[in-house]
Amino acid sequence: MTLAKRQRPAAAKRPNRKRKIADGNGNARTRDPERTKARILEAATGEFSQRGLGGARVDAIARRAGANKRMLYHYFGNKEGLFLAVMENTYAHIRTQEEALHLDDLQPVQAMRRLMHFTFRYFLANPHFIVLLNSENLHRARHIRRSPRVKAINSPLIEALGRVLRRGRASGLFRAGVDPMQLYMSIAGVCYFYFSNIHTLSTIFDRDLLATPALAQRERHVVDVILGYLRA
Fold it and tell me: Is the pLDDT of residue 143 over 50?
């Protein structure tokens, strides 16, 4: 056999060669780093949301992800590193959704309405977001404090909100002197409080605050309160 003949099969196979690794259940799985990381992040998000940072177990996350612990440690270092990655991913997801609102393309009042409706409905549809924020606040933000990414992905939203406020002020619709960061904290705050305390509030007031009529009433109230403050 010539050298050329010996090399040809190897060269033909190399681009399509895929490594098989054992997942958490001992089954063979094709290695795809990005998909593996995504599965681990999804599994970790569920585990941290259900059990908190202290109660979550790496073994359980690996099983849910169909991966092995070695891969988890390889990609994220340790459980704390994985929790930070989950928090970064969580913030990135909501910021990406907010960017898709295209607030700059809307009239100022319409832009504010869209942001408020989105925020309320996002918190409703993503209860894990509330739980993870609660968990990180219990740890005094020690994880996201190490992350330049979290700060970077929040800046564009505040800048976009500032542009909406300036347009609203220039057209005589909004009052002067509204700080965009303070405004966003107010919008997020009134939505966050409702959903983070939904079970205790439902018990105290003896009402199902997750029922459709109650949610619709609360959403209208949030929009009316914020717009009432903004109007000149």
Answer: yes
